[in-house]
């Protein structure tokens, strides 16, 4: 192996000296990859869900989606939202409707199935009293039947401007935010259709779990309502390490790609001005003949256990739902990287 030669001269106390040379060879470290399985099961996230739903007369207007009214479309989307939370853990629901005034639809917190039955029976009519909605919602939250130790999330749905004199004024907004702060509730405000003024709806949006002011989301294309609501559902983060029993070495490195449930997530360390970014590609494939074990509850695809497997460059490819990571070093002048197959 080539090296670099240095000449040196050594002199003792009497002035005697000798000249010689030394060859220094820098041998780059080469990672040794071994097979190791890592399994992570997402933790259960329980939720108290407070739904504040506009059933004013304008909710009978056509949504522009499959001939459904705004209220009919909202019922579908809210039903799917309930299922999303139910997939993550136990759920209790409180439903408050508002029009000319507001109403708590149950004496106690109810199950997902009971909530769906209550929503199914809703019919539109009346004005739009935002103030009544938040007042009754606060009282409804205090009723019996909530889950202990669960996250609390609120959704405020409306398709129009509040009736004159019944908007969320600064005083009313302060009371609502104080309630959310005290109970650690994250409140989403969802506008249904292009007729919603975000300025009227923004006061209902606030994250009491982090004490942060947020903005409403106005869904002008109601065909996207389900996707918008789905994007608000947040489970517990899944964390883990592929480095147990090993390291990248002095040159450092990174996990270049992960293959999860048919989708490949590729990391680019130079993306976002060298802050790092990733891109998703691919779709679930039928080549996976052995599904991974799932949690005991019925969970969506993302909640399956994730398995990571270290492999060497010459190892056979694992099945598509296995993350096969290969640590490699092409040359001594290149940084150590980790790729996945």
From TrEMBL:
<feature type="compositionally biased region" description="Low complexity">
    <location>
        <begin position="324"/>
        <end position="341"/>
    </location>
</feature>
<dbReference type="InterPro" id="IPR002035">
    <property type="entry name" value="VWF_A"/>
</dbReference>
<dbReference type="Pfam" id="PF13519">
    <property type="entry name" value="VWA_2"/>
</dbReference>
<feature type="domain" description="VWFA">
    <location>
        <begin position="48"/>
        <end position="233"/>
    </location>
</feature>
<feature type="region of interest" description="Disordered">
    <location>
        <begin position="315"/>
        <end position="341"/>
    </location>
</feature>
<dbReference type="InterPro" id="IPR036465">
    <property type="entry name" value="vWFA_dom_sf"/>
</dbReference>
<protein>
    <submittedName>
        <fullName>VWA domain-containing protein</fullName>
    </submittedName>
</protein>
């Amino acid at each position: 192996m080539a090296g670099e030669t240095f000449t040196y001269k050594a002199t003792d106390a009497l002035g005697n000296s000798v000249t010689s040379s030394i060859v220094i060879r820098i041998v780059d470290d080469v990672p040794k990859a071994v097979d190791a399985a890592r399994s992570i099961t997402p933790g259960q996230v329980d939720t108290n869900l407070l739904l504040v739903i506009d059933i004013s007369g304008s909710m009978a207007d056509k949504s522009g989606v499959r001939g459904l009214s705004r209220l009919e479309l909202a019922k579908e989307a809210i039903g799917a939202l309930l299922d999303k939370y139910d997939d993550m853990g136990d759920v209790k629901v409180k439903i408050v409707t508002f029009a000319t005034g507001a109403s708590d639809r149950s004496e106690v917190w109810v199950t997902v199935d009971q909530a769906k039955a209550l929503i199914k029976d809703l019919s539109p009519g009346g004005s739009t009293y935002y103030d009544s909605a938040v007042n009754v919602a606060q009282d409804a939250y205090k009723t019996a039947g909530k889950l202990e130790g669960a996250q609390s999330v609120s959704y405020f749905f409306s398709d129009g401007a509040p009736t004159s004199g019944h908007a969320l004024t600064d005083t009313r907004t302060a009371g609502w935010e104080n309630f959310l702060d005290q109970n650690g509730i994250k409140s989403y405000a969802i506008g249904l259709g292009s007729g919603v003024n975000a300025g009227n709806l923004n006061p209902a949006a606030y994250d009491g779990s982090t004490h942060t002011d947020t903005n409403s989301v106005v869904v002008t294309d109601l065909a996207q309502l389900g996707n918008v609501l789905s994007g608000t559902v947040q489970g517990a983060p899944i964390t883990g390490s592929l480095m147990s029993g090993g390291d990248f070495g002095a040159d450092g490195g990174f996990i270049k790609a992960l293959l999860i449930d048919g989708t490949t997530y590729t990391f680019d360390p130079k993306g976002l001005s060298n802050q790092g970014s990733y891109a998703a590609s691919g779709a679930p494939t039928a080549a996976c003949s052995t599904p991974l074990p799932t949690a005991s509850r019925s969970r969506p695809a993302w909640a399956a256990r994730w398995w990571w497997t270290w492999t060497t460059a010459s190892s056979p490819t694992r099945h598509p739902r296995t993350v096969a990571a290969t640590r490699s070093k092409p040359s001594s002048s290149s940084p150590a990287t980790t790729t996945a197959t």
